[in-house]
Amino acid sequence: MKKTILLLAVIILTAGGAAAKDTNASLRVQGKCNMCKTKIEKAAKAVEGVSVAEWNKETKVLRLRFDDSKAKLDNISQAVAKIGYDTDKDKAPDEAYSAMPNCCKYRE
Ligand SMILES: [Cu+2]
């Protein structure tokens, strides 16, 4: 019985510890339309450990929640930049940017 309680305590503490690793962060990401929104959020969520990725078209802010033992803000930023979107940390490669549909072109 005592052992069971101890085991339960360990499980609860471990679960609590894992949840505590979740980090909220935000990143500014350039983009224009709802297609951008879908692509940006998909790219961010494809990074392992990311549970929430929500981009706001008006404010250009990508709101994130992730397990920082698995994902780093830098990796998420790079993943989004790689598909054509400039972030406040990374500039999208020109090839990725020019491959995007015209409605998504945010650079002047
Ligand atoms: Cu777009």
Written account of the structure:
The chain is of the alpha+beta class. Helices cover about 45% and strands about 20% of the residues. A 3-stranded antiparallel beta sheet has the order 1-3-2. Strand 2 and strand 3 form a beta hairpin. Helix 2 crosses helix 3. It is elongated. It starts with a helix and ends in a 10-residue tail after the last helix. The structure holds copper (II) ion. Copper (II) ion binds near residues 31 and 32.
Number of alpha- plus pi-helical segments: 4
Query: How big is the Rg?
Result: 18 Å
Indicate the low-confidence ranges by residue numbers. Answer: none
Counting helices, strands and paired strands, the structural category is alpha+beta
Bound molecules: copper (II) ion
CATH first level: Alpha Beta
Strand order of the largest sheet: 1-3-2
**Number of beta-strand segments:** 3
Sheet bearing the most strands, described?
3 strands, antiparallel
| Helix/strand order, N-terminal first | HEHEEHH
* Percent of residues in helices: 40-55%
Distance between the termini: 69 Å
